[in-house]
Predict the structure.
Amino acid sequence: MRGDQTAAWQSLSELAKAFSGFDLRSAFAQDASRAQHFSQEAPGVFADLSKNHWHAEVESQLLALAEQAGVFEHRRRMFQGEAINNTENRAVMHWLLRHPAEGAAADALPSALQTPLKDVHETLSAMLVFAEKIRSDTAITDVVNIGIGGSDLGPQMAVMALQSYAIQGKRFHFVSNVDGHELDAVLQTLKPENTLFLVASKTFTTLETMTNALSAKRWFDAQGGTNVSRHFAALTTNVEAAGQFGIQTCFGFWDWVGGRYSLWSAIGLPLAIAIGAENFRSFLAGAHAMDQHFQHADAAHNLPVRLGLLDVWYRNFLHYTSRCIAPYHSALKRFAPYLQQLEMESNGKQVDQAGQALPFATSPVLWGEPGTNGQHAFFQMLHQGTDVVPLEFVAVKNATHALPDHQALLLSNVLAQAQALMVGKSDAGGHKNFPGNRPSTFILLEDLSPFNMGALIALQEHRVFVSGAVWGINSFDQWGVELGKVLAKDIHARILSCDVEGLDASTAQLLRRIT
Ligand code: F6P
């Protein structure tokens, strides 16, 4: 049953009406166990959800909502390999990419998934052998990933996040934009004999990626590059198209891996080259540990369930329209853009799985920037603006640098921001008044390690699953990106021929100006 048709949704609507007087400061004053009740350990992460706009009654109705909306049944279907991506008639099995090949967990899989699991591990082993070969090949100094969306954001984010584990002496570049300035700037720093191009595209048809790959290949030939099979590899489900393109070294994956969920597949090759096979396996193990937690922890202590339900409460009952991600670690610089695709491409939908228009809001806007930079830019609005924007802080306890003073200052700032948002300051009044009572979630990692990073990403994947399941939408398709692609083809032809016939007046005038 879709979330809004359940009894729990009604109860939550009632609770929301009485919620305007809720104040975090009083909630803490009245309940000595609040911090503990709304905090928990999960694999790789500790999370404090207590500074959020909710209380135990809201949470218990949200848990009832999950039950009544069939979230747990939907979860069961995903982990059984059923085709829950109904508009494309595909299973959703990115979790299988991090599933152990053997042991109790492997034995527990449905028999139909044993062959895919075997294929996953065969490809993984081959990819990791290749990664190690490149790592020990000192002639390869530059690895260029050409891909976009899920074939760029995940590997780019993770290579940056785990830079302290990365091999020395190799540079990693990520080219995604069809804007030639991006590729051109990278090519200018390269020599063909020292470069490995990874053409990453699930479909191997994406205009940006194919254009960049073709230009990279032309550059390689023009620079006198030889041995394409040594210098180009394809990461794709479309092995045939890669072959036609002239790339023989190919690592495949499967249509049951969504683009934004593909970091665990061959799309993760740049990360595997950067951190090595053993660390990559640890990254997968962290994600698998989170999968197990999501599948088996009871709902009241299940972190992805709690976060996903909190997201629903904020979006549909308190009507908060965005969520700000504030990682207090500069290596998590690309975390917010990664999460943007994960959440907004998954849950930015206006119809349910049956195609019926939804009478309620879905994906919030996700945005963010690492702290402490954000504090000196947009935090003003978060503290004193007219909108309430829930924040998600991500902090890492241990630093890998040896600079004195910095880490304690960094961690003081993240704690102080979460505190200031909540406690506010009213004694000064006027411009100096901080209303406080601003909600935030605090996620804490001991170290930014491959295991913890894998767990953190899988946590985010599953919380998106939970809110999408309550909303009754298909979180695994992305039809909304198609129209722009089709129109760009038409406009491209028009730009080449200067043809404005039949265009709307605004597009026509702009086209005239640029042709
Ligand atoms: O245009 C959206 C999208 O399909 C994303 O879902 C995907 O991650 C991206 O394009 C890239 O697609 P591909 O990996 O097939 O090149």
Observations:
- The chain has three domains: 7-91+286-477, 94-272, 480-514.
- Residues 148-151, 201-203, 206, 209, 259-260, 345, 478, 481 surround 6-O-phosphono-beta-D-fructofuranose (CB under 6 Å).
